[in-house]
Amino acid sequence: MIYLDNAATSWPRPEIVYQTMDKFLREKGGNPGHGSHSLAVTAKQTIDDTRMRVARFINAPEIERVVFTMNCTHSLNIGLKGFVRPGDHVITSRLEHNSVVRPLRKLEAQGVAITRLTPSPETGVVSASDLEQAITRQTKLIVMIHISNVNGVIQPIEEFGAIARKHNVAFMVDAAQSAGHYPVDVQAGNIDLLAFSAHKGTYGPPGVGVLYIGEKVNPETLCEGGTGTFSESDEQPESFPYKYEAGTQNSVGICGLGSGIAYISKTGRENIASHERALTNRLIEGLSRIPGVNIYKAPDTARQAAVISCNINGYEPGEVGVILDQTFDIKVRTGLHCTPEAHRCIGTFPRGTVRLSPGYFNTAEEIDQTIQAISAIAKSRPEGQSAI
């Protein structure tokens, strides 16, 4: 089997992630922060350790401002719905995932003004000058995806953050596709809200998200409940991180996230990124030699992450995905990838694309086999079928 769907979720995980999660469930399975016995204390220490790892990983100035959530979507919803109010103005792009698009659509219906910037057709990048020109007196938040989950274009978030800081506007980054793969520095990037999930580039399991909340923002909560602290009060605590962590946490999942980040630190983030770049370049070069294959990628290789899309003339993307799966045992993602506006921007709406996203555990041989499989599919196109 060849797994090329790492943009959806990383697989396999490092062995240490499996081992530490298993050990946690067997030996440390108390409810963190909800008891003073040794199992509860040990569980809380594990969560505290992971929180510290995450803070260092993103260069957060205060550890307690790293909040654990259910997933990246949950983190984005807290940042958007908890911070923006009717009458405010939000600037975003047409590249965003539905985890940003749909909350913003709901906020728009409630009286929030939304500006959606179109990326340059030549570069795939949102113009910093367009962003700055869109700012008004009512602009409260800029929210941008870091890396496209369709074609892997890396956006210049440092430039966006500098503009946001210049105009005293909060800046939120969706780092679902970048955390773990590329450095994300909340201080250098002037990032006030950073969201990502555990189960992609940081090699953790599903069911855990991260939200960094900078000192200049203080979103309202979406959920209240027991935190194991300040139990004498019927008001949700205002202190971080407890304000946003109501209920029993996914402690074993958070444990897995900590192990995933530890693995990245030991292996070297640049070593991981270098291997993924080599695989992606090999994939692009191989596919570009196949007649009838259209590739959707970053025009500038320096802005290319390990996510690309393609289509084969004469085939629907879903057909290609089924053939790759059932005939060649190659796992890819097809369709719109929960990002319809991005597909409109690159001209692949409504059919979508075949997305291929290599990871650190893929090999050059697997990439070559994938190129051969796609070549075989392209050559077998029934006569008379035109390009899609």
Fold and architecture overview:
The chain is α/β, with parallel strands linked by helices and 388 residues long. The protein folds into 2 domains: 2-10 and 268-379, Aspartate Aminotransferase, domain 1 (Alpha-Beta Complex), CATH 3.90.1150; 15-267, Type I PLP-dependent aspartate aminotransferase-like (Major domain) (Aspartate Aminotransferase, domain 2). It contains 11 helices and 13 strands. It has helices spanning 15-27, 38-58, 72-81, 98-109, 128-134, 157-166, 251-267, 269-288, 317-328, 340-346, 364-379; strands at 2-3, 66-69, 89-93, 113-117, 139-145, 170-174, 193-197, 209-213, 293-296, 308-312, 330-331, 333-335, 353-356. The strands form 3 sheets. Strands 2-8-7-6-5-3-4 form a 7-stranded mixed beta sheet, sandwiched between helices. A 4-stranded antiparallel beta sheet has the order 9-10-13-12, with helices on one face. A two-stranded parallel sheet has the order 1-11. Helix 4 links the parallel strand 3 (89-93) and strand 4 (113-117). Helix 2 packs across helix 7 (251-267) and helix 8 packs parallel to helix 11 (364-379). The two termini are 28 Å apart. The mean pLDDT is 95.
Shape: globular
CATH superfamily of the largest domain: Type I PLP-dependent aspartate aminotransferase-like (Major domain)
**Total number of helices:** 11
Strand content: 5-15%
- Name the CATH class of the largest domain: Alpha Beta
User: What is the first-to-last residue Cα distance?
Assistant: 28 Å
SSE run: EHHEHEHEHEHEEEHHEEHEEHEH
